[in-house]
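Lab manual, section 2.4: Encoding a predicted structure.

Procedure: take the sequence of the chain (96 residues), apply the prediction step described in section 2.3, and record the output as structure tokens. A sample record is shown.
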Amino acid sequence: MSEIAVVAISVAKPGYEEPLREALEGLVGPTRKEQGALQYDLHRDVEEPRRFVFVERWESQQALAAHARSAHIAAYREAVADWVEHAEIRVVSKIA
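Recorded output:
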């Protein structure tokens, strides 16, 4: 197994900043309890408060895949479908 990291960015549609923030915060507790979750931290962009950024570390690609299939992620996606203007997920591996 090799550790991987994820940077996940979600940009709220205007007027949906706080509902999206609350929904994202709701992912933190359940995700931190998942097998293979090493780090799952939510941040808010200082200059663009509609932009939220998760910085994540996972034990393996398999752990991340299980997270993507989890019930709380599925419920989140359904709940916020109309609140998100843009979402981007980057999976990276540490090189130095």
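Check your result against the sample. The mean pLDDT is 96.
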